[in-house]
Amino acid sequence: MPEISRRTRELGTENAFVVLAEVGRLQREGKDVLSFCIGQPDFPTPKNICDAAIRAIEEGKHGYTPSAGIPELRAAVAEYLGKMRGIEIDPEWVVVASGAKPFIGYTILTVTDYGAGHEVIYPNPGFPIYESQIIANGAKPVPLYLREDRAFAFDPQELADKITDNTRLVILNTPHNPTGGILTAEDLDAIAEILRKHEHVWVYADEIYSRLVYDGEFQSLTSREGMRDRVIIADGISKTWAMTGWRIGYAANRHLAEHFVRWVTNTESCAAHPNQYAAIEAITGPQDEAEKMKRIFHERRDLIVRLLNEVPGFKCLSPGGAFYVWPNVTEACEMIGAGDSEELRRRLLHEAGVAVLADIHFGPRVPGEGQHIRLSYAASTKDIEEGVGRIADFMKKNRR
Question: Looking at the domain assignment, is residue 1 inside a domain?
């Protein structure tokens, strides 16, 4: 057979989907498995949003659109993003795509050159597609470590130390996947001060969980002096309105929008036409359901943190946002003789019927930070109680 490219051989993946497929196989075989591995709201998309998509289809809005997105959606997004962040955004700076994820690749492609030694600083642990896209597009990945003693933020001084003349992009994610950590106002002030000294560096601000902040208010780097034009804001409809499968995301930047449009044209042509009208309704319509989902996530966060901290060997910080917890399971692994968090993950799946993700699914373990697993609390209260109960029983049964 002809060979495939090195780029493809080395391309990473998102292990949440890999584990989800394994969970599906086990469930089809009749195994009783509770899954906490996928970051997907377990609520239905609000009815008014579904009705807007149906209405668009019935009105014949199901063809190609401009690659940048329909003007009505770009205008709605500009007002929405700007109001949340306290800045002015022109609709011409907004580009719509099939989800927010494509903008990770589009940004790296736009600001780095393959094999030129350009560096991209990204959070570790972090959304695995960051590192995957950095490598696939020929840049050098530079991990920025998140620290448990900082509630899974990073030390701004570590960022300053990692910036070089070759740095072209810094990726920020707040609230953060997989830890649920947030960057505080003080963190962002310090980050902005550092970046003002390095005008050659762009910033990709992954703010897909911006509406899911439980401790304090959402903060964005874009509101800091001198940052708006250098920051690519990436957000979307998936998490806030339970619309993961609708695949509508958007990015905003004054200088890079025109380049993103060309990437969209070269890849996906445009986002799905009726779904763009659904997104308008999500953003501009009643927000009661979105706020209700947030309240429920908040309640679930408090529940799962309390229950996990009652499990022998588990230590779980309360995350400031998103819908993930990142418990430290170093002691738990020692208690049952598991070599690491990945072995614990496999045993929880096959022996306890609980699907979680291990820290190694989100990048190399941070030196000195121990072992962690991720659970998504985008699951019912009943499943959370039963799932953590199964974990507790497993620990008691297997404790040495």
Answer: no
